From TrEMBL:
Protein name according to UniProt: USP domain-containing protein
Gene3D superfamilies hit by this protein: Cysteine proteinases
Pfam family, one: UCH
Region (Disordered): 1-21
Residue ranges of domain USP in the record: 23-300
Length: 349
């Protein structure tokens, strides 16, 4: 395949003639949410290569084949600005003038494509419950493609992403009304619960729960707290090091607004993707910002198709111990609700 760049250069700073410009996506009306997600997927080398290598069956030109439509889009995007009309039709999006949730469609795309294409984003997580009386543990293991980070600060405070991720995995004791029934004890007992990531994905996707329902005003409200997006998630508790490479931003409220993306290219240069417009930028734009909504981190290992952060090259990363395989069938776990408040969704594999 050809390198997905053009010779034209537009930059916020002084031009560097050794760099090239990526191409944008045409907004059909209010499809910025889809454009931002598709650019992040296109700029994920392993996913892009899998999509581009998809072999089209003879006579297969159906609008419902999302993998085929992604292949066509990526081929066009490698040469020039592209349209997402094939994608919207494949996803069943009828009203392109109605804004949707970017995270919801990130999930939907990865659920719809074949597993071999989405596996770069998939990890395995166990939800564990422990009986406080006999100590028996019950483990439910699922495959996840994103992790929801609850926000526990106000609009005027600064959110810590590392602490948010630790909160997802921390131990907690259920209220007595929520105690679980223990078969061994033959009664409801004090229950401790926590989560463990058994297998970390090549790409770790985190999304912030910025939208929550206000039962006093009876409407959804957005938490617009600022955060300094960490450039790396460092090794901790068997977690490998991850380097940031893509951020989906949202500006506006629940009923409307605008999405764009800031993505690090394969040669380490940051670009700002705003529908048709693509300009060079820097990661300083992610400092103390209230816009980040979805964060994508790449595992910092030297392997084909992965691009380590330049600062990590002088620090060798220990590989993650081989995880224990779970013998029972797995399910795609989409952790947490979308901004529309939909419940956790699972898909049988």
């Amino acid at each position: 395949m050809k390198t997905p760049l053009t010779a034209e250069k537009r930059s916020h700073g002084s031009p560097n003639r050794n760099e090239h410009q990526y191409n944008g996506l045409i907004n059909q009306g209010a499809t910025c949410y889809l454009n931002a997600v598709l650019q992040c997927l296109f700029m994920t080398p392993k996913f892009r290569e899998t999509v581009m290598s998809y072999e089209i069956a003879h006579g297969d030109c159906g609008e419902t084949n999302l993998l085929l439509q992604l292949k066509k889009l990526f081929e066009q995007l490698s040469e020039r600005a592209a349209t997402t009309e094939g994608i919207t039709k494949s996803l069943g999006i009828r009203n392109v003038f109605e804004q949707q949730d970017a995270v919801e469609y990130y999930r939907k795309i990865l659920k719809t494509v074949e597993t071999h294409a989405s596996e770069v984003f998939e990890g395995k997580m166990s939800n564990i419950m422990k009986c406080g009386k006999c100590g028996k543990e019950t483990r439910d293991t699922n495959t996840f493609i994103s992790i929801l980070l609850s926000i526990n600060v106000g609009n005027s405070e600064t959110y810590d992403v590392e602490n948010g991720l630790e909160t997802v995995l921390k131990h907690s004791k259920l209220e007595e009304d929520d105690w679980m029934y223990c078969d061994s004890c033959d009664c409801k007992t004090e229950t401790e619960t926590w989560s463990e990531i058994d297998e970390y994905p090549s790409v770790l996707t985190l999304h912030l729960k910025r939208f929550d329902f206000d039962y006093i005003q009876m409407r959804y409200k957005k938490n617009e707290c600022c955060l300094d997006v960490p450039p790396s998630l460092h090794n901790k508790d068997n977690r490998p090091k991850y380097d940031l490479y893509a951020v989906v931003n949202h500006k506006g409220g629940f009923s409307g607004g605008h999405y764009n993306a800031i993505i690090r290219s394969e040669n380490g240069i940051w670009f700002y993707f705003d529908d048709y417009i693509v300009t060079q930028t820097s990661e300083t734009s992610l400092k103390n910002s209230s816009l980040p909504y979805m964060l994508m981190y790449r595992k910092a290992v030297l392997s084909p198709g992965s691009v380590p952060h330049p600062k990590s090259l002088s620090h060798p990363v220990k590989s993650l111990p081989h995880p224990v395989k779970i013998p029972h069938s797995m399910r795609i776990l989409l952790i947490g609700p979308s901004r529309a408040g939909k419940s956790t969704d699972t898909l049988k594999m």
